[in-house]
Amino acid sequence: TAEREALKARIRTLLRERDAVMVSHYYVHPDLQDLAEETGGIVSDSLEMARFGRDHPARTLVVSGVRFMGETAKILSPDKTVLMPDLDATCSLDVGCPPDDFAAFRTQHPDRTVVVYANTSAAVKAQADWVVTSSCALDIVRALKDAGHKILWAPDKHLGGYIQRETGADMVLWKGSCVVHDEFKAFELEALRREYPEAKVLVHPESPAAVVAQADVVGSTSQILQAAATLDAKVFIVATDNGMMHKLRQRHPDKLFLEAPTAGSSATCKSCAHCPWMAMNGLRGVLQVLETGLNEVHVDPALIPRARLPIERMLAFTA
Ligand code: CIZ
Ligand code: SF4
Asked: Transmembrane ranges (predicted)?
């Protein structure tokens, strides 16, 4: 619409004037994904968002995603200004892993190497040996296991369980979950697969084990994109936040992408898998923070050096 185009035009101008660049996650609204790419920013997963923000020369990063992504950007670039459309955009994994409770959990397992998922607060990252995202978690835990480490894992129990099954590593798991991926339903997925027997099934490992077990490819958002490009198939069933459908359909207009069924599936909403916090990001919010400088992400400076260490280990491991 005309209003959307006017918002985008204004944002483009302000990005230039403010020496700012947009960093968007695959799960946010398509407008924010496309605008980030058109203006020299990036749309990606949390690992590449972190790397891009660290390496880009712009003085201001506008992060469309959820709180932990803005915090990671700030931790890696404390001298940059990090703005987010809505500072209340959090994540059920972050909320479900309070720093004090996590410290107590760690104390019960002093002999274990602490590996935390990027979807955590700065105060939890500051207690970790390693930070991982879903695109590198498997490789990092496998390397740690091979080096003789026992693992303390937090917070996603499904991703942790998947890694445990794949690597055979000795892991104790925090029992958190993602409100979106936890809702994918194995029984309904079986039914959909019977309807589309030629479909390949792509599953994010934050999903329950019975859903992961039906996957042709288990992987992060970037790995799901890659599978859609490389697998010899025309139909895919995708179990991850449906924000992902935009990039999949944009890159492969000749292929059919079906959303894996969730508890909320119905005639009008076959799958209702969309993160309520990712949905808080919009063009209006981006424009507002560029105009006003409001919604700046702050991380306690006392936490930054310690939180930065395990993130930089991950970036070096995956470089
Ligand atoms: O579910 C999320 O928040 C994901 C997939 C984050 C990420 O690592 O990109
Ligand atoms: Fe967190 Fe799940 Fe939302 Fe990702 S999709 S930000 S893991 S609640």
From this structure: none
